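User: Can you help me understand a structure? I only have the sequence.
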Amino acid sequence: MSAEANKKLMQAIFAAAGNPDPAVRDRSLFIASLADDAKWVVTGQYSWSRTFTGKESILNDLHGHVRSLLVERSRTIAHRFIADGDHVVVEAKGNNLTKTGARYDNDYCLVFRLENGMIKEVREYCDSVLTEKALGPFPEAQRRAAG
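Assistant: Let's start by predicting it. Here is the structure, written out as tokens:
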């Protein structure tokens, strides 16, 4: 796919998943576009830093854990997309509230690598101090499962 097609795919994914109306919010395009052997790399040197390998690990170990900590109306809103070949860089801002009442409005830079219209790798850059302050350290059991 072209850089422009990759960019349009990522814009569609974020538009659907970040819809302001929770009744309309839809992650199905993201899930369908995530390759079975995809990798999600949480960068840095804190408890969340690791590589989640495989669609199941990304959806369950990483996203599942995050969703278990947030209220249902939470979302991430993309505000810039930059495409170059197989890569799309997305700048985004969280609009999230934890179940304990803490705000988790992290700033993200997500670098997506696509191959034939499928997300093969994501590198996540964010405020690690805010992540651990609002969400706590990544659980040990999930750390081992994620590898």
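Now, to help you interpret it: The helical segments are 3-17, 28-33, 55-69, 128-135, 140-146. The mean pLDDT is 92. Let me know which part you'd like to focus on.
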